[in-house]
Amino acid sequence: MSQTIQPLQHWTITYPEKFIAIMDTIPSIGHDKELRTITAGMPDVDTVFHYEKLEEGCYLFIVDMKAKQETTYVMHGDRDTEFYCLSYQRIQGPVQKTPLAKSVDAGPLESKVLSLPSLCSFYNNQFDYDTHFVEGAAVKAFIFCFTPAWLATTIDLSTADAQAEYVKVIHKQSSNMSFLSDSFYKHTLTELDNLVFNTPRTAIYNLVLKKLSLTLISDFFTIVSEPQSVINVDPDEQVKAGMNRIMQYLEQNVRKGFPGLETLAEMGGMSVSTMRRQFLRFCGYSAFDYFREVQMRYAFEQLKQGVRTKDIALYLGFKNSGNFSRLFKERYNLTPAEMKKMN
């Protein structure tokens, strides 16, 4: 799905068949055709690609990247090849994805949305972005790539709302749309992950693979086709500005403790119920969970600099460093002590 060009930190997002053909011309790239796996070890990032052809014109392409050092990769859509991608990503550690050119409807929080730990994105070949990794951070993306011909046999666009965000992406009035997706895809994606990487290839492997994949694709289009879905109702500029104020306050006051929903809602100029709804939309968390996420990111950076776990916990207002360590492990899948050993 990604064609390597010079320098190596620049990639071109393209259709899997084209990507595979290009990779086969590079001697340093490992390609196991039986396992349908391509390995591209680089000085800064370990990358493994896995691909499965679901139907003619539709692939599952899995990208697994882990940074060995701090680095940034720039991704460019392949303008010479027509395709669409539906991506479900899981992020571990601080990873920042930023669009290179904002779409007409893009809001000021777009890069925050793109960097959610569990994200669903739908984009076309006009989508360009960069991804910044800190050392040890990782991204695993399950990407369904399909051609316009395959999409045309799947969705009847004649009945679709022309103003729906996914329709704008299809017609290239916008390059992408993204939103938190844990609420509807989490268990199916976990099943798919286990099937591809932890299950022997039995006689029904392809059948189950196709069933799970088409479920994820159909779930996405079912939700985005609903006119009253929160992702199809764009908040006004006043709400966006209020959300920015709230998030900026939480990011700049990690040691003051959580101020409470009423205080934050007043700060953003909205009701508590509106703030709750918009927080989930923009951030993928409740306000309190977002505050905890900000604290854990701060702790991650402090541990990289060698600050003692006890001192970080105390600074962030944890009376018990054990509680801090537990939350840190839940977020990054490693303890503060293990994190410090990586430096």
From TrEMBL:
Entry keyword set: Transcription, Transcription regulation
Cited Gene3D superfamilies: Homeodomain-like
InterPro entries attached to this UniProt entry: Homeodomain-like_sf, HTH_AraC, PchR_regulatory_protein
GO molecular function terms noted in the UniProt entry: DNA-binding transcription factor activity; sequence-specific DNA binding
Domain of life per record: Bacteria
HTH araC/xylS-type domain mapped to chain residues: 244-342
The protein's name in its UniProt record: HTH araC/xylS-type domain-containing protein
UniProt organism field: Filimonas zeae
